[in-house]
Amino acid sequence: MKSKTSFINKGILNNDFKRYTWIGIVYLLGLLVAVPLKLAMIYTRPEAIKVNYNAFTYLRVLEFDSSPLLLILLLTVPVLTGILLFRYLQYGKAADMEHALPIKRETLYNTHILTGLILLLTPVIITALITWALVAGLGIEFIAGRNILVWLEVAFLLNLLLFLSTVAVGMFTGLSVLQGLLTYILLLVPSGLSLLVFHNLSLYVYGFPNDYYSANLEKLSPLLRLPNSTPPLPAGEIILYLLLCVALYFLGRYLYRRRNIETAGDAITIEVLRPLFKYAVTFCTMLLLGSYFHSAAQGSMFWTYFGYLLGAGLGYFLTEILLNKSLYVFQWQRVRGLGVYGLVIIVLIGLLYTDCTGYEKRLPELSQIKNVYMDSYFYPLIYEDEMYAGNAFKPSKAIYDDHDNIARIQALHRQIIARRGEEKEASSGPSGETQRKERICLAYELKNGRHLYRDYIIPTAVYAEQLKPIYESREYKFHHFEIFRANPDTIKMIDIHSRNGNKHVRIAEPERIKQAVAVLRQDVLEQSFEAMTVNQRPAWADINITIALADDAGNTMPAVVYDRVGIYGSVTSERNNYYDIGMEWQKSYTHFERWLQDTGLYDQARLLPGSDIVHAIINYAPDGIDEAGYRQLMQAGNAEEKPGVLKITDPDKLELCLRTYQSGYKEGALYTVFFKVNTGNSFWGLIPSAEAPDFIKPHFTP
Amino acid sequence: MIEVERVSKQFGELEALHDVSLAVHQGSIYGLVGSNGAGKTTLLKLLAGIYKPDTGNIMIDAQSVFENEAIKARSVFIPDILYFFHNYTIQDTADFYAHIYPQWNHQRYLKLAGVFNIEVKRRIRTLSKGMQRQVAFWMGLSLMPDVMILDEPLDGLDPVMRQKVKQLIIQDVADRAMTVIISSHNLRELENICDYIGILHQGKMLIQKDLDDLKADVHKIQVAFSTETPPALIDEMQALYHEQRGSISIFIVRGSHSEIVSRIQAYAPAILDVLPLTLEEIFIYEMGDNGYEIKNILY
Fold first, then answer.
1. Which of these, A240, A318, A439, B183, could form a disulfide with B40 (CB 3.0-4.6 Å)?
2. Residues B72 and B162 in one domain
3. Are residues B227 and B176 in the same domain?
């Protein structure tokens, strides 16, 4: 007679295989169809089609999001296996039968887990082996052994993690459906809950950089992270996932030991977890509906609170119904539980409103700042450099090292903090104002190694005094205009396309390219804050600078590496050997204008009054122009020369109008102006009353 | 030897068992009687090591049962609601138990095939409820258990099979000193098989008795005198129960048979009969004031 505890029980193991081997077979067949068979299908396509194939076509098959079949198999089979193998725990009769057997729970647990691992991992290994044999046999040189190993590694981790999570979840729930559901939810919770918490925090905390914190959240959830793990997982992460698997194994074992068999059929089988589950669901649904109503009602706090109330109530009572398996849950005692929860939340929101931690007021000391990032988004900070492996032009990280600039940015920040009361009020009020706003994303790196992130939206005009020196600084221009980073030697050509017409100039001679770049740089450096922001006038033309990423022999200069699954270049056509920088020929770019005149390209680069612009029709709008007025104007068109309008045909006057007009909507008295182009096209703008040339006003004064 | 010491078990708000104790000696049969919801199944699942008691001890041969592989390998539990693996035949099920229970006796299994007479290739799910129960006994007896825990085991069996199964159990008790605990909501069903009876009501043990003692000890006596029943006799008898039907007196009396008879003979009755008592009657009279309560339980 056996009296020692054995790790597994052979009888149970045999029985498991007898009952569940079909899972492994179905899984294997599915995987074979999704991977090696697909490779074979690609390989046997007609040569005429295959000419255009490259490594990517083949390597793509080894990616988990490449085929729905592969993804569905990997995401569902491990969970189903976990549910089926431990189904006996959730089904009273079976639970009694299995636990009456002379086998310890731990042995049962280990045995079923071993069955699961064998059923799941064997098909994965066989698939990898067959794929490897196929690749070797057919001589598909694009796929290396390493590629298959990476596939195997991720498939292993996904299977382990999903299966062990399902098992662990199964120990504290007594319903198979809930087991599956909770497994997916719990694997998504790290991402989802953080997303919700950050979004909701940003509603209360002025300057909270929601975008920065929310950016890489999908990495927190293995369910989102693993199938999209491009590039391959770093070793640290693999170890982390393996440790997580081990932790899940022990967690499940511990919970099994604590589980009462009679709880089969209960939503939550471990007594102490019931309130936790209840309030966690309440909290999540509260945040979820709050966020939903916040965005659906365009930021209205009334509707946000309504969403909180609805979400908390729904979550609370639905879990009560689930936990008690009864609809009769609306009792005073339970309502009180929700009431206490509500009070805690009110206190929490109150604390956030009062900024008890001083988060909103925090401003780094000037002497403490090593450098500071400032831009209108966090994008370049968030995304890893690897994402641009095949791209010569990574977005510039607008990090300011210059001491003067750091001081200016800190002064701007100080002003924002000082005015936070006003800005908060303005942001919660009705939106749709026409005034220009700047988004200021800040990331300080402090000398003590810490970071401080903030995100603000501020009205440009109010902060003009603080913004102007920053925007006009050299550093700002270098960060924001790619032309400073383009090496003139690699520029293939510069194209200038006039706005509103089809005039075009191409500069291709290296010497002229160098000259053009030099004057454009000078213009950008001299451009004023006002010209960049509040007084923007439509550009003369769009400038496209084409940079060669490959030399003339066709060798791609920035190497595109094919050695790992996930990293692949998009160099599939000739065009992708180039990188385009787009910029505008602003009306303030006088150096460039003069250079064009000197080189004789000027007339071809922009629309000229007289020869290109036939006439302009000016009308007076004493109350300014809003969106509705704009639409009306667009519909009426300029074809109608209404009585009372001013028609201009004189080239000098036309040129003056062209240099003055602005776009967009404006308040206050202004003139609308239509330009008629000789091609039959027209374009439209407006001239504020104060800036109008002298010849306009008299016409409209009675 | 089964010992249950002051066991309580709570399911959420509901207390299924409260401070229950009992003992079953080796080689004897204990009948556990109670209405639906009395806690019989809970007590048996505790004995089978499925549930863990909140307080108290469940011991078989002086060892705690819960998570005890050695003890569980020697006992078998046949629940009131049977469970077999999906799509399994009788043979599949036998193979499974043969791998799990070290005492599995294949000879016995083959021999019992003759008793139950069901084709071993048949899927158990396709069998009738009564036949499934026969399969459960077939498997259970083939395991050669030292302890059998049976929850309402005779439900759904036809009278012939009922008798056969009882016979098989009694035989094992006699031959191998197997210990049996058997539950039923019907006291009469257990009448001629049990050595002990315990009555469970609302999670509490109302009364437990050794049937041999009981039957030897309590007597139903019918006497008639040519004249009035002598009052001195009524006083002397100290009956558990006394009823006068015309000239006939009925006494339920405790004591030794011969002594009681000789005592009545002294009053020279016209008729003296000692009538058999049903188990039900014994319990009702034994309980005295609680008798009415028990009448409702035992129907």
1. B183
2. yes
3. no
Contact B49 A100 (CB under 8 A): yes
Residue B103 distance to chain A (closest CA, Å): 8
**Alpha-carbon distances of A570 from A22, A210, A230, A558, A561, rounded to whole Å:** 41, 31, 15, 12, 11
Torsion angle in degrees (nearest 10) through CA of A279, A284, A285, A290: 120
DSSP character for A429? S
The region that residue B96 occupies, defined by phi over 0 for left and psi between -120 and 50 for alpha, beta otherwise, is: alpha
Closest of A524, A416, A435 to residue A471, by C-alpha: A524
Q: Give me the CATH number covering residue B232.
A: 3.30.70
| Chain B residue with minimum CA distance to A262 | B51
Q: Do A11 and B49 touch (CB under 8 A)?
A: no
- Residue A13: which of A87, A106, A112, A84 has the closest Cα? A112
Residue B54 located in a structural domain: yes
CA dihedral sign, ordered A646, A651, A652, A655: positive
Cis ω for the linkage preceding A68 (within 30 of 0): no
For B97, name the nearest residue in chain A, comparing CA atoms only: A11
Counted residue by residue, chain B has a size of: 299
Same domain? For B164 and B74 the reply is: yes
Which CATH number characterizes residue B54's domain? Answer: 3.40.50.300
Quick check: B234 contacting A, CB < 8 Å?
A: no
Owner of token pair 């109503």: A293
| Structure tokens given for A559 | 């190497």
Position B2 pLDDT exceeds 60? yes
In contact, A673 and A686? CB cutoff 8 Å: yes
Q: Which residues, at least 6 apart from A594, have a Cβ–Cβ distance to it below 8 Å?
A: A519
Quick one: B168 and B191 in the same domain? yes
Secondary structure (3-state) at A170: helix
Residue A680's pLDDT is what? 80
SS (H, E, C) A288-320: HHHHHHHHHCCCCHHHHHHHHHHHHHHHHHHHH
Helix (H) or strand (E) segment spanning residue A687: strand A682-688
With an 8 Å Cβ cutoff, are A19 and B51 in contact? Answer: no
Q: Name the nearest CA neighbour of A292 among A315, A308, A280, A278.
A: A308
Percent of chain A with pLDDT over 70: 89
Q: Answer yes or no: do B45 and A1 touch at CB < 8 A.
A: no
Domain boundary among B202, B229, B244: B202
Residue A59's pLDDT band (cuts 50, 70, 90): confident
Nearest Cα residue to A348 out of A338, A337, A356: A356
- State yes or no: pLDDT of A342 exceeds 90: yes
Tokens of A188: 């998504």
ipTM: 0.88
Domain span at residue B257 reads 213-298
Q: Based on the fold, state whether residues B219 and B172 are members of the same structural domain.
A: no
pLDDT at A561: 30
Return the SS3 of B103.
coil
Report pLDDT digits (tens) over A564-617: 233 333 333 344 567 778 888 988 899 999 999 999 888 888 888 888 888 888
- A-B CB pairs within 8 A amount to 71
Of A11, A19, A96, the CB nearest to B50: A96
**B121/A331: higher pLDDT:** B121
Distance CA A221, CA A223 (A): 5
3-state secondary structure of A169: helix
**How many residues does the structure list for chain A?**
702
pLDDT higher at B16 or A619:
B16
Q: State whether B157 and B264 are in the same domain.
A: no
**What digits encode the pLDDT tens for the residues A166-219?**
999 999 999 999 999 999 999 998 898 998 899 888 888 899 999 888 887 888
Closest-CA distance, B218 to chain A, in angstroms, reads: 39
Q: Are A632 and A672 in contact (CB under 8 A)?
A: no
Residues B53 and B22 in one domain: yes
